[in-house]
Amino acid sequence: MMGERVSIRLMLADDHRMLREGLRRSMTEHGFDVVGEAADGAEAVDMAGELTPDVILMDVTMPELDGVEATRLVKAANPAIRVIMLTMHADQEVLAAAIRSGASGYLVKDCSTEEIADAIRSAVSGETTLSPALAASMLNEVRKLDPPEQPEEDRVVTKREEEVLQLIADGCSTPEVAERLYISQKTVKNHLASIYQKLDARDRTQAVLQAVRMGIVSLD
Amino acid sequence: MMGERVSIRLMLADDHRMLREGLRRSMTEHGFDVVGEAADGAEAVDMAGELTPDVILMDVTMPELDGVEATRLVKAANPAIRVIMLTMHADQEVLAAAIRSGASGYLVKDCSTEEIADAIRSAVSGETTLSPALAASMLNEVRKLDPPEQPEEDRVVTKREEEVLQLIADGCSTPEVAERLYISQKTVKNHLASIYQKLDARDRTQAVLQAVRMGIVSLD
DNA sequence: TGGCAAATGAGTCGAACGGACTATTCAGGC
DNA sequence: GCCTGAATAGTCCGTTCGACTCATTTGCCA
């Protein structure tokens, strides 16, 4: 209400002094208030608890405690603190871990100070920033994981057999399946025998598991 | 080898003539060769087949055939054609569909022509570009989907029961499990009875399915 | 039109299954 | 020292399962 613009309180966590000093200088020029510097993850967690900065610029690779774990601890102790992770390379596994740790941004270190400043301001307003390189990397991962979709309607088992399988998966016994489908137990058993052959299973448990693996039935 | 720099052949697909003309002008200024314009998805697919452009700038929302489906068809017919999707808003569902369709970039329409030009050049060299807004949106989605991690070692079933479950899941019958674990069939049945209670199952099939759902056993 | 796959039904038989009840041994915690 | 839970083992009994063989009806397609 009073309009007095309070500058954003920033904390740096990186094990390279030179990089910290460079960051401190450029972030100060961008109008941020650098209130503290930590040289490793453990120090960062402690310092964050004392200083409660608005935003932490945290390197991923640090001694004692890596940036991901440090971020997790900081967020656990004080969820209001925003953490922006800095990383050397667009490593897919690290990125996944970083995402889970609850950071508000993921930047590769070769980005400009303007980009960092933007990311800090976005983080304060609750937004998330991702370096293009990291975004693309994540995208490829998602694309890699996703394609397991096989729209080919191979239909290994017949419609009826599929119904039987789903009911079995839902917890029905042979008599119950027969009742549900208004057919005799014999017929159900015949369908099952056919299913066992087709799915290379020797009992209903294996058949259902195989069907789940093949996406023929759902687990719910 | 001859050094003659061939410009990138571009195709536009958007149902708004004005936007197409604006794009054509600015892309031409950026040195691209705009070889065609389509006003809807179906036209885009046909035209792509005839012109085989290097890159298509494809709007997501179009009459006849939406951009996602059109992209899928174009990539199916000619995987070498790169498609960059343009979208109005960072809609999560559309983004997911777009990712699956195999495009090489996803830009929100308020980005600059320089950004579009960069994305086109990246697409030609096989890279993927994502608008920051879309990246953040996707990130939130991943974060939402991921947390279901429960590292709590609740150990619903005992070690031994888990072994039995895994063997059952691997296709063993009660006698076989007994043999494998060097215990009597009776004991296996005791374990199973205990498992049924704990997992609220009434037979081995349900028990294994529940165990799979709970991540107690693996499906290979 | 002839043949083939799907869906239905049936019989027998031995093995496997699941429930109910009981029991012993052993380790860890109160 | 007592109690609990895990792991072991047993009996009895009725049900369910899966293998094997066979038969009928439908619908489709070559």
Q: What labels would you give this structure?
A:
52% helix, 13% strand, 220 residues, homodimer, DNA-binding
Helical amount among residues of chain A, as a percent range? 40-55%
Shape of chain A: rod-shaped
**Into which percentage range does the β-strand content of chain A fall?**
5-15%
Please identify the oligomeric state: homodimer
- Radius of gyration computed on alpha carbons of chain A: 28 Å
In spatial order, strands of the major sheet of chain A run 2-1-3-4-5-6
Number of strands of chain A: 6
Low-confidence stretches of chain A: 147-153
Cα separation of the termini of chain A:
53 Å
The most extensive interface, with participating residues per chain, is: A-B, 34 and 35 residues
Q: For the residues shown, what is the average pLDDT of chain A?
A: 84
Describe the main β-sheet of chain A briefly. Answer: 6 strands, parallel
List the secondary-structure elements of chain A in sequence, H or E.
Answer: EHEHEHEHEHEHHHHH
**Which structural class is indicated by helix and strand composition of chain A?**
alpha/beta
**Total helical elements of chain A:** 10
